[in-house]
Amino acid sequence: MRLFDSDNYDSDGDGISNLMERAFGGDSLTNDSKSIMPRSIRKKDGYEYIVFSRFSDEYNSGDDMIEYIVETSRDLRTWYDTSDTTNGPELIGTPEDLGGGMERVVFRSRQTRTAGGNTRQYIRVRLKSR
Known about the structure:
By secondary structure, the protein is mainly beta. The chain folds into 2 domains: 1-36, no CATH class; 38-129, Immunoglobulin-like. The protein has helices spanning 2-5, 18-23, 33-36, and strands spanning 39-42, 48-55, 66-73, 79-81, 90-99, 102-108, 122-129. β5 and β6 form a beta hairpin. The protein starts with a helix and ends with a strand.
């Protein structure tokens, strides 16, 4: 039974760990890998966007707390999180309440793909459980 409680285990065999399923509002006993995972959005404005569901602050506390770390990069080696107000991503708009303690958020890169003569921009979300 320990495997079903383990963050690193994939209880339903869909390729998504139990931690990721819990963090993004999935069910660790149902194959829902396509519907819950963060999605990147590419718009013609040149910015990189990512949208995902997460626990709202009110429901994300205590021993089961999950830290959502959204980052951007130009080279896939150096990543900048939201604390970097020049290179890191920013939350766009107000989180949308999905009910059950979950909310949908959208983050955007602060710089366009071509800013400073660059051609690439990446965005991701990492998780840490406490």
